[in-house]
Design goal:
alpha/beta; Hypothetical Protein Ychn, Chain: A; five-stranded parallel sheet; 4 helices; about 35% helix; about 20% strand
């Protein structure tokens, strides 16, 4: 059975340490061979847009653009449907590789065999 990790990030610039922890844990899991799905919700939704991760700064933390690039290349990155709508973000606005999906897809991934879910 393939192990998988679903990470839901609710924090962005409003809680930088929590946000960075989520991206770091997801990236380390991916580098360890775990299938990773990162969900951008709440204030982290803005990181689905080009250039927004580059605006994020946290001393002594890995650069968010690097972590996001790794997750886009080897994992799955999803922007919450409702969060996108509240911010007027459409599929045309997001980075290549970011999908927009809702709670039903999150629940399917989180409850899949071998899956673990974390919320930050």
């Amino acid at each position: 059975m393939k192990r998988s990790l679903v990470v839901k990030v609710t924090a962005g610039q409003d809680a930088p340490e929590r946000c960075s922890q989520a991206f770091t844990v997801a990236s380390v899991a991916l580098a360890s061979g775990v299938e990773v799905s990162l969900w951008l919700t709440g204030e982290s939704s803005w990181f689905a847009l080009p250039g927004r991760a580059a605006e994020f700064e946290l001393p002594h933390a890995a650069p968010l653009p690097d972590l996001l690039d790794a997750l886009l290349a080897g994992g799955r990155v999803t922007l919450c449907t409702q969060c996108a709508a509240r911010r007027e973000i459409t599929g045309d606005d997001v980075l290549p590789g970011v999908r927009i999906a809702g709670a039903q897809v999150f629940v399917q991934e989180a409850l899949a065999d071998g899956a673990q879910a974390l919320v930050y």
